[in-house]
Amino acid sequence: MGAVPAWLRIGVPAAVLLAIAALLIWIIGAFLGFIVKLLVGSIIVIGFVALIGSTTRDRQMTR
Description:
Elements lengths: L5 H57 L1
């Protein structure tokens, strides 16, 4: 068997490591995006519930 060129010995592991790093960044980014959307949605829902609760309480007090 012939000698393996230096660019192939260095390039293939480097390409594999870059692919793994890109995949990890993509997965972590998607997970963090999901958490941020969940937090923002929760804050909006809690805000609406508080707003609706305060208006119904005001109506009951004025009667």
